[in-house]
């Protein structure tokens, strides 16, 4: 009886210690929301009549986002299946490199794709990141070229080098609620596959909304949306660049405390090449600090 009583006391103490440790983990005020993988709303009828009904070009992902202290985390819960890979005006739009269970860490300087299954992460850089709350089009072109989309499907005989297409491209975005423009900005992906647009289009707008919400903005109870456009130059200068645009909602957007531990690459994880590019002869640069930036807490 004495042994059982002592064991029970030890169990209660252990549970209490664990609960205290969990509750005492550092947190920062931030925001959370959900990303839906469903198809976007159709464009206005006048756009469809001029350019046709656009096909779904970007492979959708579902997940959750938490942001605090200048850094965010996008947990990928599902990737929509789409076979085969498609090519739009020379741009190969394969699925993003992430898989369900992976997550992205992001801030104004870049992002990291973290893969818990292999305890590795890969780094990407962002340049020329800027946004404002006054509706200015800083760094935007005078106009975006929209044209009827020509889509090719890529079969099993497509060279691997084509499927691994990557490079730099700018992203232009604005966040809104009905009747009100919230923020507008742009940034450049230094080097990534075009399909990463599915994830990166959320990054800067999330930072902008977090800045508004942490100062008390409630958007009048409306659901904000992000409109993001990726722009790729064509090989021939006389051909207008390819623009791919979508509108997505910030579902279940709310304020909340975010654990700083969730916004860091865990200790013991090693920096590695992009998944699927491990044996590519071309050298992909890793971060200058071997990922130390992502292993430090934000804030």
Task: Let me know the average pLDDT.
Answer: 86
How many E-type strands? 15
Task: Flag low-confidence runs.
Answer: 1-22
- Which of globular, elongated, flat, extended, rod-shaped describes the shape? globular
The portion of residues forming beta strands comes to 35-45%
Secondary-structure content class: alpha+beta
Helix content: 10-25%
Order of helices and strands: HEHEEEEEEEEHEEHHEEEEH
| Quaternary | single chain
**Helical segment count:** 6
- Rg over CA atoms: 22 Å
Distance between the termini: 51 Å
Task: Give structural notes.
The protein has 299 residues and is α+β, with helices and mostly antiparallel strands. The chain is built from six helices and 15 strands. The chain has helices spanning 2-23, 45-51, 160-163, 197-200, 203-213, 292-295, and strands spanning 27-35, 61-68, 71-79, 86-88, 91-93, 103-106, 110-115, 120-132, 151-153, 167-177, 180-192, 225-232, 242-249, 251-259, 270-271. Strands 1, 2, 3, 6, 7, 8, 10, 11, 12, 13, 14 and 15 form a twelve-stranded mixed beta sheet that branches. Strands 5-4-9 form a three-stranded antiparallel beta sheet, with no helix packed on it. Strand 6 and strand 7 form a beta hairpin. The radius of gyration is 22 Å and the shape is globular. It starts with a helix and ends with a helix.
């Amino acid at each position: 009886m004495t042994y059982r009583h002592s064991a029970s006391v030890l169990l209660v103490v252990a549970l209490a210690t664990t609960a205290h440790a969990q509750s005492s983990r550092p947190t920062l005020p931030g925001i959370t929301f959900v990303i839906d993988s469903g198809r976007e709303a159709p464009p206005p009828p006048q756009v469809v009549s001029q350019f046709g009904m656009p096909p779904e070009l970007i492979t959708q992902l579902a997940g959750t986002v938490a942001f605090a202290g200048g850094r965010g985390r996008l947990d990928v819960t599902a990737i929509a299946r789409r076979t085969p890979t498609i090519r739009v005006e020379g741009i190969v739009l394969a699925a993003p490199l992430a898989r369900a269970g992976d997550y992205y860490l992001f801030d104004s300087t870049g992002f990291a794709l973290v893969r818990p299954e292999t305890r590795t992460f890969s780094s990407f850089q962002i340049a020329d990141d800027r946004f404002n709350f006054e509706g200015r089009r800083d760094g935007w072109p005078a106009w975006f070229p929209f044209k009827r989309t020509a889509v090719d499907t890529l079969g099993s005989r497509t060279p691997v080098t084509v499927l691994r297409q990557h490079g730099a491209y700018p992203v232009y975005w604005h966040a809104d609620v009905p009747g009100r423009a919230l923020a507008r900005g742009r940034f450049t992906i230094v080097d990534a596959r075009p399909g990463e647009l599915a994830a990166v289009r959320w990054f800067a707008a999330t930072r902008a909304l977090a800045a508004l919400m942490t100062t008390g903005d409630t958007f009048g109870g409306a659901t904000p949306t992000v409109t993001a456009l990726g722009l790729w130059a064509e090989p021939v200068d006389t051909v207008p660049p390819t623009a791919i645009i979508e509108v997505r909602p910030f579902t279940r957007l709310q304020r909340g405390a975010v654990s700083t531990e969730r916004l860091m690459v865990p200790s013991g994880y090693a920096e590695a090449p992009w998944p699927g590019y491990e044996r590519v002869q071309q050298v992909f640069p890793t971060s200058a600090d071997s990922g130390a930036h992502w292993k430090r807490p934000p804030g």
